[in-house]
Design a protein that fits this description.
This is Metal ABC transporter ATP-binding protein. The chain is an alpha/beta fold. About 35% of the residues lie in helices and about 25% in strands. α3 crosses α5. It binds adenosine-5'-diphosphate.
Length: about 240
């Protein structure tokens, strides 16, 4: 059983296709990077998988069942920039939102949920900021809180949209070690990533995307200059090929 199976997914914004006939499966327990230039459809793919935007066609299965039946198994870390950080709430409450699948809406979180949420904050080094308003956190701290929320969800499959954007080097290291920890627990983590220099170091597998699927598979097989040229076209000339 594959943790993620995407079949023939096409997405269009106002009739303009931004993802065309995307199909792939990923194996369990891997860290997978989704790589492609700006506007390639990476975010759109994640959102379409989660049913946040409509698909023109295609299906997404999580462990052989439609996504809609498996929501609880899937954790999502949205792009930090897509969130209203002025919303008046503190770090702990954001993390507790990750528990709602377990608590049930309209019920108040119990002591155990709060303890678990605090544990998750601790894992990302943010326990001391539990009562801090999210508007008063730095970008890296906000990203850590998002990760704590995903941890609190205790999902099996994680979809993350650019978790490394706008964070300092220490936070980037903390995030990657957390992702490796999730992997060690047998979880499957799909990460939209734009920094080609770190792909080989971070990811077991890569999905190269630009409107269509260019290639998917183990990083050492798929992350090649030839495939990158197909993905980035002329823009690859600007990249430091010595690191590829
Ligand atoms: P990436 O994440 O790879 O940078 P996106 O998935 O954000 O790419 O965007 C893919 C394409 O879809 C781009 O051309 C973008 O302009 C377009 N797009 C994204 N969101 C919307 C939207 N809400 N309405 C219309 N077009 C959109």
């Amino acid at each position: 059983m594959e943790p993620i199976k995407v079949e023939n997914v096409t997405v269009a914004y106002r009739k303009k296709p931004v993802l065309q006939d995307i199909s792939f499966t990923v194996p369990e327990g891997k860290l997978i990077g989704i790589i492609g230039p700006n506007g390639a459809g990476k975010s759109t793919l994640i959102k379409a998988m989660l049913g946040l935007i409509p698909k023109a066609s295609g299906t997404v299965s999580i462990y052989d069942k439609p996504y809609t039946k498996q929501r609880k198994l899937v954790g999502y870390v949205p792009q930090r920039g897509s969130v209203d950080w002025d919303f008046p709430t503190n770090s702990l409450d954001v993390v507790l939102m990750g528990r709602y699948g377990h608590i049930g809406w309209f019920k108040r979180p119990g002591k155990k949920d709060i303890e678990y949420a605090l544990e998750c904050l601790d894992k990302v080094g943010m326990k001391e900021f539990a009562n801090r308003q999210i508007s008063q956190l730095s970008g890296g701290q906000q990203q850590r809180v998002f990760l704590a929320r995903a941890l609190a969800q205790d999902a099996t499959v994680y979809l993350m949209d650019e978790p490394f954007v706008g964070v300092d080097a220490a936070t980037e290291k903390a995030i990657i070690s957390l992702l490796n920890e999730l992997k060690a627990q047998g979880k499957t983590v799909l990460v939209v990533h734009h920094d080609l220099q770190t792909v080989k170091e971070y990811f077991d597998w890569v999905l190269l995307l630009n409107l269509r699927k260019i290639a998917i598979g183990p990083t050492e097989e798929v992350f090649t200059v030839d495939h990158l040229q197909k993905t980035y076209g002329g823009r690859l000339a600007f990249l430091d090929q010595t690191k590829l």
